[in-house]
């Protein structure tokens, strides 16, 4: 348990530092993904919290702090569901970034560091910490379905706000450019990936739990 708490403390510190750095850059008006001409500061802050990358890193930071600072973490269903959301969400963040977003980016300096921390370093650290010393028995198959609800709510919010403001945080969600059938098909593929990773994590967790017992 002590080793797990220390590992999650490292993840929490790195994720928190990455979020603070990216928020500071957004506050200062630096480009975020496809923002060529950044909008007013208030709109930049709203957009910042609308990125799945930011939300998944926030979940990783929050659940990692919970594990690091508590002797009895993740005992409630809500905390376990959030833990699964953090773990699978950050894995999806890394995968989608690598295959869909990385070729579109051209960053340097602090922007490059923030991007790599949020999309590469934190996903690798979070998944590695869970695989090696993570708390066992917290990823339960009966709760995988609940973990899908937050990403679905985020998607609905993103599409509704995008239709109203003409801003979509990721190019593949731009319904104006690609049409809703194509966007929903892409979302369906990501949802399948999310569920597959969640079910796979539950099976791995069960096997690792048996090895420890």
TrEMBL record:
Keywords: Membrane, Transmembrane, Transmembrane helix. The chain crosses the membrane at residues 7-28, 48-69, 81-100, 112-132, 144-160, 180-202. InterPro entries: Pr6Pr-like. The keyword Lyase does not apply. This is F420-dependent oxidoreductase. The lineage of its organism: Bacteria, Bacillati, Actinomycetota, Actinomycetes, Propionibacteriales.
């Amino acid at each position: 348990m002590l080793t797990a708490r220390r590992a999650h403390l490292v993840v929490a510190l790195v994720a928190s530092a990455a979020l603070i750095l990216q928020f500071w850059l957004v506050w200062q008006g630096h480009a975020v993904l496809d923002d060529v001409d950044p909008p007013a500061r208030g709109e930049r802050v709203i957009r910042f919290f609308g990125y799945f990358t930011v939300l998944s890193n926030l979940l990783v930071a929050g659940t990692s702090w919970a594990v690091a600072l508590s002797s009895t973490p993740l005992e409630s269903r809500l905390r376990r569901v959030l833990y699964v959301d953090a773990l699978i969400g950050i894995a999806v963040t890394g995968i989608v970034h690598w295959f869909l977003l990385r070729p579109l980016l051209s960053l340097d300096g602090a922007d490059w560091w923030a991007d790599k921390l949020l999309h590469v370093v934190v996903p690798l650290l979070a998944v590695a910490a869970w695989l090696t010393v993570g708390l066992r028995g917290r990823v339960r198959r009966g709760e995988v379905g609940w973990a899908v609800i937050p990403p679905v709510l985020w998607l609905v919010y993103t599409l509704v706000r995008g239709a109203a403001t003409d801003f979509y945080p990721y190019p593949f969600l731009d319904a104006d450019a690609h049409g809703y059938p194509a966007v929903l098909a892409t979302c369906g593929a990501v949802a399948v990936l999310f569920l597959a990773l969640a079910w796979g994590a539950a099976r791995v967790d069960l096997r690792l739990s048996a090895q420890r017992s």
